[in-house]
Amino acid sequence: MLLLDRVAENLELEGRRPKKMILCLSGGLDSRVLFHLLCRLRRQFAFELSVLHINYRLRGEDSNQDEVFVQQLCAEENVPLVIHKASIDKEASIQEQAREERLKLSRSLDFDSDWIEAHHLDDQIETFFFRLLRGTGLSGLRPLKIVSYREGRWIWRPLLSVRKEALLDYANEEALAFRQDKTNLETLYSRNWIRLELLKSIEEKYPHYTTSVSRLQDQIEEEHEWWCAEIPKIVDQISDDESWDLEGLRLLPRAFRHRVLHEMIDKRWKLRWSREKILELSRLIESKMDFNFNAPKNWVLRAAQKDGRIDLEAPPVAKNQGIPRLLV
């Protein structure tokens, strides 16, 4: 399938077409190709396209030239452009700050517009290994989706099933100029090392490894969707507004119990606990002993086996702010 046709097909997923779109355009290969494709598809899909360019000011004159390059592209195609000059602390994680900057801007820009990103299949695989090696649970290994909904805005990634090599082929065929970020060739950053060293070695030994990883991610996503549908039902079955069935909680398989605790503590009560804390609580529940459990943010859980319940006591400040008391 031609790249233009694939992007057109992906822009019709979820039974809807975007009406207004914002593209974060760096001027590099990925976003440059997507910009060219979207400009070709504007009339067919009748959507409005605008561009955001973030100048992180990390590469001196090269960063300024990126900005000039994007200005010229948008002027040639008559596409509205917003330029944001970021302030990045070079002593902290640069990549994490850049990500937060993009997210912050995406929340502030026109909320009638969908957000479109140039992530491709190689990005997807790179993120899988980055999270795996850094340390994450199964949920952290889930794939990005071509279409998703985040914080009241639709997010499109129409290149997600495309290898970077195909983007380079397209740029060459169309004689597209694009900017090169030399820091992408430095293995100092973890993601660069994964892309330039680790994945290159894996592909030499296992040429079709991307298919295997994608298949695994799809399976993880399917099971995650099942958990999301079933765990709230289990929570409702073993709890009400005043108490939890402690024996019912104890008899759950560990994977279920861990998910149930996470659902109640993290999702419903908006208390951010680490997985280690949830596992520690789960082991105490298994022990059939009375216990006092000092939880994060000065919350305390008091378990009395004879009562068959656990009281979750809020700290004084939380009580004064009207945060409800949970009886488990």
Explain this structure.
The protein is an alpha/beta fold and about 325 residues long. The chain has two domains: about 200 residues, 3-Layer(aba) Sandwich (Rossmann fold); about 110 residues, Chorismate Mutase Domain, subunit A (Up-down Bundle). Helix content is about 50%, strand content about 15%. It is built from twelve helices and ten strands. The strands form two sheets. The chain has a six-stranded mixed beta sheet, with helices on one face. Strands 7-8-9-10 form a four-stranded antiparallel beta sheet, with no helix packed on it. The longest helix has 30 residues. It is elongated. The N and C termini lie far apart (about 55 Å).
Task: Please give a handful of descriptors for the protein shown.
alpha/beta, 328 residues, Rossmann fold, 2 domains, 6-stranded mixed beta sheet, 4-stranded antiparallel beta sheet, disordered C terminus
What are the SSEs and their pairings?
Blueprint: H1 3-10, E1 20-24, H2 29-45, E2 48-55, H3 61-77, E3 81-85, H4 94-108, E4 114-116, H5 121-134, E5 147-150, E6 153-156, H6 164-173, H7 190-205, H8 209-238, H9 246-251, H10 254-268, H11 275-287, E7 291-294, E8 300-304, E9 309-313, H12 316-320, E10 326-327
Parallel strand pairs: 1-2, 1-4, 2-3, 4-6
Antiparallel strand pairs: 5-6, 7-8, 8-9, 9-10
